[in-house]
């Protein structure tokens, strides 16, 4: 007769316990992974929503700047203009909302963007500030497109500094250097577009327009004085090792319609991106620009696209630009996630076409004349 022992079935019980434990570990692991992925997806969505809220603050800042410009261009001494200026100077987080309504806010509450109880989403921008005075003007230019920049400082200035071509402008953003010619021969012709290297800084045409004090006529641009009118300089990038290149130029030394004085100038550029921008040109103005006065600086890149930075100086001291490209700092919120963005705002119409020349064509020009004996065919501004 078989003898029974207390150990019968213990192995099976042990296997069942281990199997149950293993299954539990696997289930818990998968559950944690699912919860983590779900949380990451939710945080990603909320982060994007928070950024959208911050961008809503930027868009409202554009509206606020339009209101500010409208009331102050109409009458800079009006009550509305003084109110807008006071709100800008307050540096409050509600300044954007306050300028739109021209009413200082009594509280620092956030500005709601969207609230949806069905999806448990609450969006707002908690703070949006506008800085009118900035250290520089930044832009990215396409070849053949002129950028006109009004130069107005918070104090007087007599020099404009142009920097251009950053690493991001290279065809290969990982490139560490490029090659430049060591000299530019006097009277040398510009290269054809297809022959100019893609990884080389743009040739820049820079122009300055400074108006005389008092009345001004368009004919004054064709008959400039030593301190007013229009001047242009062509800047050609050259190696920093070149003995003929420079970084300091004077618009006042340019004589219009004199070929000898209007030759392109080679500018020293860093070939290894030692600074944020490879090329730097210091351009002395025709005359000192005082507070309340304005000059116009135009830039036309050739061959390649280029990132630029423009700043103004009084001798060697940096002067802040006043209202040229205001900086908006906006913080957005979506539930408990926050995002902060900064943006530069153009006060003028950036899409307004500014022709680089009276006539511009890639082919020939055909002039079509007509002859008439009827005075009515002439315009009212022309004598028959």
Short précis:
The protein has about 375 residues and is α+β, with helices and mostly antiparallel strands. The chain is about 20% helix and about 30% strand.
Written account of the structure:
This protein has 384 residues and is α+β, with helices and mostly antiparallel strands. The protein folds into 2 domains: 15-133 and 326-352, no CATH class; 136-189 and 196-319. Helices cover 22% and strands 31% of the residues. Helix 1 (10-74) crosses helix 3 (95-101) and helix 2 (79-90) runs antiparallel to helix 3 (95-101). It is extended and about 115 Å long.
Keywords:
single chain, alpha+beta, 3 helices, 15 strands, 31% strand
What separation lies between the terminal Cα atoms?
A: 141 Å
Range of helix content? 10-25%
What is the domain total for the residues? Answer: 2
Tell me the structural class.
alpha+beta
Q: H/E element string? A: HHHEEEEEEEEEEEEEEE
Report the β-strand fraction as a percent range.
Answer: 25-35%
Shape: extended
Furnish the topology, listing elements before pairings.
Layout: H1 10-74, H2 79-90, H3 95-101, E1 111-116, E2 121-134, E3 137-141, E4 147-151, E5 157-164, E6 203-210, E7 229-239, E8 248-250, E9 265-269, E10 279-289, E11 295-302, E12 306-314, E13 317-319, E14 321-334, E15 337-344
Parallel strand pairs: 7-9, 8-10
Antiparallel strand pairs: 1-2, 2-14, 3-12, 4-11, 5-10, 5-12, 6-7, 6-11, 12-13, 14-15
Helix pairs in contact: 1-3, 2-3
